[in-house]
Amino acid sequence: xxxxxxxxxxxxxxxxxxxxxxxxxxxxxxxxxxxxxxxxxxxxxxxxxxxxxxxxxxxxxxxxxxxxxxxxxxxxxxxxxxxxxxxxxxxxxxxxxxxxxxxxxxxxxxxxxxxxxxxxxxxxxxxxxxxxxxxxxxxxxxxxxxxxxxxxxxxxxxxxxxxxxxxxxxxxxxxxxxxxxxxxxxxxxxxxxxxxxxxxxxxxxxxxxxxxxxxxxxxxxxxxxxxxxxxxxxxxxxxxxxxxxxxxxxxxxxx
Amino acid sequence: xxxxxxxxxxxxxxxxxxxxxxxxxxxxxxxxxxxxxxxxxxxxxxxxxxxxxxxxxxxxxxxxxxxxxxxxxxxxxxxxxxxxxxxxxxxxxxxxxxxxxxxxxxxxxxxxxxxxxxxxxxxxxxxxxxxxxxxxxxxxxxxxxxxxxxxxxxxxxxxxxxxxxxxxxxxxxxxxxxxxxxxxxxxxxxxxxxxxxxxxxxxxxxxxxxxxxxxxxxxxxxxxxxxxxxxxxxxxxxxxxxxxxxxxxxxxxxxxxxxxxxxxxxxxxxxxxxxxxxxxxxxxxxxxxxxxxxxxxxxxxxxxxxxxxxxxxxxxxxxxxxxxxxxxxxxxxxxxxxxxxxxxxxxxxxxxxxxxxxxxxxxxxxxxxxxxxxxxxxxxxxxxxxxxxxxxxxxxxxxxxxxxxxxxxxxxxxxxxxxxxxxxxxxxxxxxxxxxxxxxxxxxxxxxxxxxxxxxxxxxxxxxxxxxxxxxxxxxxxxxxxxxxxxxxxxxxxxxxxxxxxxxxxxxxxxxxxxxxxxxxxxxxxx
Lengths: 255, 527
Fold this sequence. Notes:
The complex is a heterodimer of chains A (255) and B (527).
Chain A: H1 2-23, E1 60-71, E2 84-99, E3 102-119, E4 122-142, E5 145-164, E6 169-191, E7 202-214, E8 217-223, E9 235-240, E10 244-254
Antiparallel strand pairs in A: 1-2, 1-10, 2-3, 3-4, 4-5, 5-6, 6-7, 6-8, 7-10, 8-9
Chain B: H1 2-16, E1 38-40, E2 45-49, E3 54-60, E4 66-72, E5 77-82, E6 88-93, E7 108-113, E8 119-125, E9 130-135, E10 141-147, E11 156-161, E12 170-173, E13 183-186, E14 200-204, E15 208-213, E16 222-225, E17 237-243, E18 253-259, E19 264-271, E20 281-288, E21 295-301, E22 304-311, E23 316-320, E24 327-331, E25 338-341, E26 355-359, E27 365-371, E28 383-391, E29 394-397, E30 406-410, E31 416-421, E32 426-431, E33 438-441, E34 447-451, E35 455-462, E36 468-477, E37 479-484, E38 490-496, E39 502-507, E40 516-519
Antiparallel strand pairs in B: 1-2, 2-3, 3-4, 5-6, 6-7, 7-8, 9-10, 10-11, 11-12, 13-14, 14-15, 15-16, 17-18, 18-19, 19-20, 21-22, 22-23, 23-24, 25-26, 26-27, 27-28, 29-30, 30-31, 31-32, 33-34, 34-35, 35-36, 37-38, 38-39, 39-40
């Protein structure tokens, strides 16, 4: 399925590229002007409201939201009755470059969440942490809205537990892996709809969706702190990869 | 509307991603009370995981780790049984009942081999959902019987030649006079007047006995009517024994039938046929044992082949000459009810006769040796009584040549069992903490295991030194199996029917509670 998503992503970016050709009036290709936050804001609505050639305000953004990964890997089945892996997500972004309707930001994110279920009557739990860093390309549609595409590789920590009825103790495992988020999104100002080049704190609503790749991790459960019977052998459950289609919504503050 | 197309493409994975998980994760761990779910094979322990329609095969490595594999066994398991050589497990499944769709699974018999490389050897699709399973001790045949349904033909049998996996099962309805099959006996090859020696399947019903020639199972069977006990009560078979007789005489193979609560003994001789197209003719003779016998067997005596019967009410045994019907009574020193030939297990054998071991269950304590031939230093046809202090309910044989001369005498009423040495005629008491121990003998015949079900202790008795070693494990044990490890050593697998089934694995030869490996969630493996 993955190539289709990437195809969709690249196609959408290509569409954006067409749009850029149609409307760009800023720097020539390859010339991204240095952002100049001290320059006065222009009234974009009166001229070309969708563009801010050279006027993008460098801003920093923090966001807090809810993320849902739709994990279709069979190894996730022991820990959830459906394919949904809910997480909280915290993100920080900082715009490095801006030119015309485009800007480029670096991003850092921390996602944490989990799910629980039972396996043939034995309680199970999966919790995960993802620390990611990447880049985000933005296309400013309006002074108070922009679309973006984000690519963020990351490190994953996946912990699994099984409450073993035969051992009488909880068996646990923790494994580390890699992830790669590729998402497209839309960010809309909810509060403080001033020109995007103006300084100040603004509240945004963000929705994004895409695909998250995750490496497959072995699950070898064993008791913690020598609890339970002596010399308990590792309990194997299927390898798990917590990747899949992803959808998230968050509130962001820019300043 | 290009953008709409791309949004649709982008949403597609989300729409398809919201599926429910495989139902296998929600299946309960179902271990029906009283039903055996674990079976020991030579190299493996097989656990029937009925909710998932699979058999989980556990093998043990040198490091006491477990290697698992699983095999489909069909839906709705009716019965399972291990072959006599403990190499194979036969699992009878009724399939989907009632079948409503063509793709609904049919009844089946699955054969799983528990060798070093376990595998599903064969899967026979059966025509009817039968519930009974009978296994040939020589490993050639399995008989499926005991039909269920709105209209039942209880005399319908399905004969499966498991030694030829490609051969189709044979449906056969035996002639009936109102009875239904209750017990099956498989003979060794018996010589018959015409043709090669052949094996017979002897089917006992409540009122007659049927002989099926296993060399021609689809041919006509022979039904042996039994004498009526009274006008309204037909004779009911209680035991069947057979002998090939003199190996040089092709016309003296015999089958003897003991009747329930009846002093009559029915003798069937496979003699010369009148019709040249037949291999034999079954001739029936009835002899009076002089009392109601409780056990029967053909024995060799210094006077030739005899049919021996124990008459506990008279504290005697009778020897009946199968040729002439002449009966000879022998007084016994007690009311012994059971008899087993142990001739091949003893070193000191009579020159021309068998040795039998007698025990009496709750009617007679102790055991007796019955020598049926002339033995130097022993009285002629002597019966020697040994009072071991318990009522012997069961005698377990020890497989293999090394310790075949040892028997385990078990009584459920006492807190002890005995290891009997047939050669030295000595018995060694083994005291236990409580009554009700399960005793099993390792397939290699070198150890016995004593387990009080649901206890956390069990013991291994070395059948060479008779040294018992008690082992304490950390979870209650429901069954213990002695299997060959993948490296050729021996492992004991103690099963704990808790949670998803756990197992404590230890070295069987040198069991040590401090050198064990605990495996949790056996039934979560392979999912």
